[in-house]
Amino acid sequence: MFWLPVATLIVGLLVTGALALVSHSQFVSNEKRLLALRVRDADAAVAGALSGIQTPLVSAAELADSTHGNMAKFKALATPLVGAAGSGRPYNSLSLWRVNSLASGPVAVQGAPPILAAQPSEAASFLAAAARSPKLSVIGLLKVPAPRLGYAFANPGTTGGYVVYAENALPANRHSRLQSTSAFAGLDYALYLGRQQTPATLLVSNVRHLPLASPSHAETVPFGNNTLTLAMSSRAPLGGALPRDLPWIIGVLGTVLSIAAAALTLRLTQRRRAAEQLAERLEVIASENERLYAEQRGIAQTLQHAMLPASLPQIRGMQASARYEAGEQGVDVGGDWYDVIDLDGRRLLLVVGDVSGRGLRAATTMASLRYAIRAYAAQDDGPPEILNKISRLVDITECGQLATVLCAMVDTEQRRLTVTSAGHLPPLLISDGAGQFVDTEVGLPIGVEASASYRSTTMTVPSSATVVAFTDGLVERRGESLDEGLERLRETATRHHVGLPELLETLVTELVNGRSEDDIAIVGVRWTS
Amino acid sequence: MDELKPQPDQLISFDVVVDGDHHATVSIDGELDMSGVDPLAARVDEVLGNGVTSLTVDVGGVRFADSSAIALWVRWASAVDRFELREPPPLLLRVIDAMGLAEKLGATT
């Protein structure tokens, strides 16, 4: 059950990592691009500064040539160009050399003596080469204690034979905070003579410990017959702090979200598992309940049928039939019953009764009433006497039960029907395709009053008449008048001209359609002669 | 005042008020059958045990009553000196009449 949260966490962290990497590489490439732009700007500034070095030399060379080495004019030109370091003048030293006698030193010097002159052979070869070059010649005097940069220029268009040479001291330790121009703002830089970035070729830098921090970017700029290399790196992100911090922000937020998502997934997984376990247990309980219900219903029906007559008496000239239907909620034994008692071979006593309530209490009351009626019938009591006597057997104030009972005595030969009711619905008399409920006085149900008195109604019936007695489950429906149910029974019973057992079956089927809430007992007799 | 709201699985609500010397009024609404009579029976037995001898049962709101419910009313009618079943709806009155209990239950419209 842990694979899902773990997978969630892994996927979340992978996505976070990928986003952070993409963000970081964006930042790096952006910084590189911005740095390159800044270095190009700075390069342009350096190039501008270099022209400020070259131009006065060119002017001085032309002057020397045109005046054939006039010292006074050279001095006049050189004086404003030369000063000590930090004076703001272009050079620390400016000197004039005759090309034909380079080995004998400068013919004129303004400012500090050129240290190139200390090494005459080197000076001669450098200045000789400079005299042949149309470009400014640059030399690095970097191995001496006070390193300098030297520049030489000879006007190639004249034949005067003079070379002008200037020197500039490099800053102490070649370190300078330097140029507060916007081109260098916020950047570390190192300027080298030539294309190599080595300590030996370093001219100036604003950091004491080289190399520059990564990432750095270098560009070259032509400087006379030589080249300068400008390397730079940025002290702070050029694109601002947010792009630099974004990978970290993404990483932290993504990790937190991944952990939260994994925790949530874990929780949901656990809940789902718990719900599934609960559902499984409920299913087991439900199927167990269903089994118990079926078992109990089976027991109830078995008991019910055991308390009803196993067979009905057969006498000449009279057919009897009965049915019992358990209601939908029939997990308990019901209180409905029927009975047909052969009194003397020519008369039958039909009994239908209904004890209020359900369960064993109702069933035992039903059984005692049924057998009491059989006993009194055997003593040859008439229906009113039988009901009067059994009314003493039940007391509603003690047991909370009452019972409605219908006793109908049918005489085969005399075609007489005697009906007595203790709070029960009247029987239906059917003959010649017409039906009517027997109109008889309704006495109190059994259990309401001890020694209640009952009166019977007697009538003579046509030949082939049918009498059907039943309990209320056959006709009662919630929300409907009792009379509607009775009328439905009468109509159905007179519409079907079939044998008695089929008639009872049809009535049960059509009237309740197998969905009766209540139990149904129905019993009928038909004169056959 | 004693009131029970209908439970989700029950269709009945009732109210039992002792509103005079030895008199109580029981109001019942809904469908009253075997599955729902026990709480009602217990509550009324309680007031009957406390000396109530006259009972008015208002069944104007009863849509259905099975024989268990009617048996319960008959038991109350047998337990008190004066009993009245007030305002039984026509459907209910017809059943009570068919059981021969209209007089016993003092059923009046």
Mind explaining what this structure looks like?
The complex is a heterodimer of chains A (529) and B (109). Chain A is an alpha+beta fold and 529 residues long. Chain A has a domain at 308-527: Phosphatase 2c, domain 1. Chain A has 9 helices and 20 strands. In chain A, the strands form 4 sheets. In chain A, strands 11, 12, 13, 14, 17 and 18 form a 6-stranded mixed beta sheet that branches. Chain A starts with a helix and ends with a strand. The model of chain A has no long low-confidence stretch (mean pLDDT 87). Chain B is of the alpha/beta class. Chain B has helices spanning 37-49, 67-79, 90-98, and strands at residues 3-4, 12-20, 23-32, 54-65, 82-86, 107-108. In chain B, strand 2 (12-20) and strand 3 (23-32) form a beta hairpin. The longest helix of chain B has 13 residues, at 37-49. The N and C termini of chain B lie far apart (26 Å). Residues 1-8 of chain B have low confidence and may be disordered. The A-B interface holds A 354, 356-358, 396-397, 400-402, 404, 421-425, 442-445, 447-448, 472, 476, 478-483, 518 and B 31, 34, 41, 63-64, 66-68, 70-72, 74-75, 78-79, 90-91, 94-95, 97-101, 104.
Summarize the SSE layout with pairings.
The complex is a heterodimer of chains A (529) and B (109).
Chain A lengths: L2 H64 L4 H8 L14 E6 L9 E4 L8 H13 L4 E5 L6 E6 L8 E8 L17 E7 L8 E4 L10 E8 L2 E9 L6 H67 L10 E8 L10 E7 L4 E9 L3 H20 L4 H8 L5 H4 L3 E9 L4 E7 L5 E4 L2 E4 L4 E2 L13 E4 L5 E5 L11 H14 L4 H13 L7 E8 L2
Parallel strand pairs in A: 14-17
Antiparallel strand pairs in A: 1-2, 1-5, 3-4, 4-5, 6-7, 6-9, 8-9, 10-20, 11-12, 12-13, 13-14, 14-18, 15-16, 15-19, 19-20
Helix pairs in contact in A: 1-4, 5-6, 8-9
Chain B lengths: L2 E2 L7 E9 L2 E10 L4 H13 L4 E12 L1 H13 L2 E5 L3 H9 L8 E2 L1
Parallel strand pairs in B: 3-4, 4-5, 5-6
Antiparallel strand pairs in B: 1-2, 2-3
Helix pairs in contact in B: 1-2
